[in-house]
Structure formats: structure tokens, C-alpha cells
Amino acid sequence: MPSRRSLLKAGGVLAAATIVPGTTATQAEAASSDPWRKVPDILRKIRPPRFPDRRWDVTAFGAVGDGTTDCTAAFKAAIAECHRRGGGRVVVPPGRFLTGAIHLLSDVELHVSEGGVIAFSTDPNAYLPVVLTRWESTECYNYSPFIYAYGRRNVAVTGKGTLDGQARQGPWESWYANSGPQSADQKALRKMGDDGVPVEQRVFGAGHYLRPAMVQFVKCQNILVSDVTILEPPMWTVNPVLSRNVTVRGITVVSTLYNTDGCDPEASSYVHIKDCRFNTNDDCVAVKSGRDADGRRVGVPSENIVVQDCYFSGRWGGITVGSEMSGGVRNVFAERCVINSPDFPGNYPVKYPVYLKANKKRGAYIEGVYVRDFTGGNVEREVIFVNMAYNNEAGAEPLSVRDIRMERTRLDGAGAVLNLVGLETDHLVDVRLEKCEFTNVAGPDKIAFTDGLRLRKVFVNGVEQ
Where does the record place the Rhamnogalacturonase A/B/Epimerase-like pectate lyase domain (predicted)? Predict the structure, then answer.
């Protein structure tokens, strides 16, 4: 990383950058407006749901843990009875229970005991009839997510057991790999969203090829996903959509198919993601809020999201925002996360510990992404990549990305520290790094159309910037 004096000369890659030195006045301003002061209040408003002390074992409803008996009807009956009786815990005992879609009802905790496995069918017909969902952040009717809830209160998936998506045994990979049939449906849905086609007319499912999410809650309140291990999802893994008061804690995600993010809070607020391990073939935590015109139509931001004490070993970003962020994103906090830990190495090294993706087709805003106390290393590319021209998608929507901060972070090994891509029409504003140390950094930074870049007590390869 070059010094402040050389920032505007680094290989000719910098354009229209404004550097603000770390003066005493600047320090006083930063101290008086410390965004981390908001976190205790956010966390006080996030309360995991509590459930009556009643239990229904799925085997009492006909489920058999032999790995071959279809237990879909048993799960449905147990959940319905639990809900009818005022709520409680539906228990999956040790064994391997094969099922299709599981739809949760209010006041139901689905508890997978240690030694218990919910193995999801590899037959797409097991996820019909279609349900109202968001697919890559555009609303439509599609195959049901493997675990799904719509408009419910107090829902949970807990336990030391396993959710096995069996995605590599199913057809899901063939749908997108080698220019598979998903591409045509993907383009059709995006066009429907851009053209304002009524949602009830956006019907996919049977005869189509849009892979369902693994666990999705739509328009729900008071959600808990805790302790489970989730293997081989067909697409995004845990995806709260238009939901509020969400706790995701202590889960382990292992995914190898393309586009299998770990946790995607989408147009959701008051979300706490803690003590999780993400070994993914895409982003680890990816905050979203809708895609393009359809996301702006719904117009609900993601905000007040706190990520703590997680292990990131995903193929792309650690803490990520976008690219589907057309409803806006504000107040994302991430702290004490470990990048590419030797104790949890994952299948792929993280390319970008902090990765923000936006463009003029998405429009909207990202305001306030705050990171501190990250450790680890072996970062494949840049520590922070803010790309306001993501995928080179053209558009004319106003776009604002501002207030990105990293503090007290120590990482060993990276291609570079910063790759900041603002736009000539819409500058990136206020990127701050403070009290950070980066070692074994290979290359120079790239900074374009960025105003208010501030560095204070930042050391790169032993040299203060």
C-alpha cells in the first residue's frame, strides 16, 4: 500500500481521489460520531424467540430414520399439531430422515437432535407446489425452499444435528453448469422484474430451473437458526427476507455448489449473526435488499445487522453487501471475525474480507459498513473491495456508497489492501482505516473516484501510511 503522498500516483490507477489526513480535528470528529455506539442498542432489540416446553417427536407421526422412507407427511403433521396446540418443539431424533419441503408455522421450533439428519430429497417435485419467494432478490413463485416459512412469528431451526441438502446428488448443478437451462429462466425473471410484470404472473417451478434456497423465511418476525450443521445447499443457505428480529448463531455451513452463500439477510432488519463458520463456494455473509427495478418497487432496506465472532472461508467475500441492494443497506457491523483460519481452512480462500458490490442498474445506497478486529490472512486479492461498477451493468439510477470503516484489523497476506471503484458520476465517499496492520501485502492499491479516504495508524509491510 503506498504512502499518502504517493496515493495519487500509484501506477496511474487512481482517479479523482480526495485524501483527508488524520488530523486532530478529524480524530475528534471520528470519536464523537463513533458508529459502534449503536451496537448495544441494536442487540437489545434482537431477542430470540422462546417456545412452550412441549415436544412432538416426528417418529410419533410416522417418520422413519432409515434414510429412504419419505417423511414429508410426518414432518407436516408434527408441525401442524405443534402449532395447533399452541407451539413448542418438533424433535428430530438420531437417524437419517428423508423429506421434501418443510414449511414451518408460527410458534414452532424444529429441533434436530445430535445424531439426527434431515436429508432433503433430490427430486425437484418434492418442492412443489410453488411458493411466493425471492430468487436472487426478485419476487416470483418458484420451487419451495427446503425449509420455508411465510408470514410467521416465532419460528426456529435448532439443534446439534445436520441439515443435508444433498445438492451434489440432485440435478441442481446441471441446471446452471455449462450454460445449463437456469440461465434462460434467470434472464426471464430479471426481465419480468425490470418490466414490472405482476408477481402473480412470475410463475416458475415445474418445467423451470431456478434452484431453491435451503432455508428461507419471508415476512417473518422472531427467527432463530442455531447450532445446526448445514451441508450442500442447492443455492443460498440461510435467507431471511423482509423479516425482523433474526438470530443466526453457532451454525456451520459447508457448500460446494456455485452461488451457495452462507447467510443472506435480505431487506431485513435487526439481524444478529454470531459464532458461525462459513465454508462456502461464494460469499460468507451477504447483505441484500432486492434487485434492480423489482427491489426498488418493494423498497425495503436491510439495516441494523451485527456480525460477530465468525469464521470466514468462502470463495468470494467475508462480509459482503450486494450486489442485490436496490432497497438500500445501512448500519452493517462486523467484528472479531477470522479470515481463512488454519483451524477452519475451508475449500477456498477468501478473496475479499470486505466486499461491496453495486452499480447504476441497482441504484439505491449503502451507508455505513463498519468492520473491526478482523484477524487471519492469506487473502487472495484485496482486503477491501468496493465496486460501484459491479459486472459492468449500465444504468441511470442514482447510487450512493459511503461511510466504510475498518479498525484494529491485522491480516497477514493479501494481494493489496484497497481496491476502491467509485464512479465519475457517483463518487465513493468516506473510507476510513485506523489502527490496522497488514503484512505480506504483494501489490499497490487501486483507487478511483473516491472522496474522503482517511488513513490513521495504518501499517503495511511495516511502513506507516
Answer: 58-99
Lowest pLDDT segment from 32-36, 124-128, 142-146, 311-315 = 32-36
Cα atoms found within 13 Å of the Cα of residue 327, Cβ hemisphere only: 23
Q: How far apart are CA 215 and CA 156, in angstroms?
A: 11
87, 270, 376 from 106: Cα distances, Å:
7, 19, 40
Q: How far apart are CA 299 and CA 335, in angstroms?
A: 28
Q: What is the dihedral of CA 80, 85, 89, 94, to 10 degrees?
A: -60
Band the pLDDT of 164: cuts 50, 70, 90: very high
Give residues with Cβ within 8 angstroms of 366, minimum separation 6. 321, 322, 325, 328, 329, 330, 356, 358, 400, 401, 402
What is the number of residues in the chain?
A: 465
* Residue 377: DSSP 8-state: B
How far is Cα 275 from Cα 336, in angstroms, rounded to an integer? 10
Q: What DSSP letter does each residue of 27-84 carry, written as one string?
A: HHHHHHT-GGGGHHHHHHT-------S-EEEGGGGT---EEEEE-HHHHHHHHHHHHH
Which grid coordinates belong to 229?
A: 450443521
pTM (2 decimals)? 0.94
Nearest to 119 by CA among 72, 157, 67, 168: 67
Give the three cell numbers for residue 320: 459482503
Instruction: Give all domains of the chain, ordered by start, each with its CATH number.
Output: 1-33+267-465 (2.160.20.10), 46-260 (2.160.20.10)
Place of cell 422412507: 69
Transcribe 402-418 into DSSP letters. Answer: EEEEEES-EEEEESEEE
pLDDT tens track for 392-424: 999 999 999 999 999 999 999 999 999 999 999
E strands present in 137-284:
138-142, 147-150, 153-158, 162-164, 215-218, 221-226, 229-231, 238-241, 244-249, 252-254, 269-274, 277-279
